[in-house]
């Protein structure tokens, strides 16, 4: 019984405030980077669209048949 008490006691530690802050910052940075990559991708697509439109390779007007 004494061994189980030691294991249970060793498994529970108080949360480290510094660790929690670091984990939060890292999670925020990772989410921010993914969000920024999403916006870079949208910006690239928009630029490609307007470049094709300017060169006349595509049109937004339907052709009459």
Structure description:
- It is built from 2 helices and no strands.
- With 65 residues, it is mostly helical.
- The longest helix is centred in the middle third of the chain and has 39 residues, at 17-55.
- The protein is rod-shaped.
- The N and C termini lie far apart (88 Å).
Quaternary form: single chain
Task: Tell me the helix content.
Answer: over 70%
The helix-and-strand class reads: mainly alpha
Distance between the termini: 88 Å
Overall outline: rod-shaped
Global mean pLDDT: 87
Number of helices: 2
What characterizes the major β-sheet?
A: none
Order of helices and strands: HH
Taking all Cα atoms into account, the compactness measure Rg is 27 Å
Question: Could you give the count of β-strands?
Answer: 0
Low-confidence parts:
none
Function: This protein is one of the nuclear-coded polypeptide chains of cytochrome c oxidase, the terminal oxidase in mitochondrial electron transport.
Subcellular location: Mitochondrion inner membrane
Keywords: Membrane, Mitochondrion, Mitochondrion inner membrane, Transmembrane, Transmembrane helix
Organism: Punica granatum
Key words describing this protein structure:
65 residues; mainly alpha; transmembrane helix; mitochondrion inner membrane; transmembrane; COX5C; mitochondrion
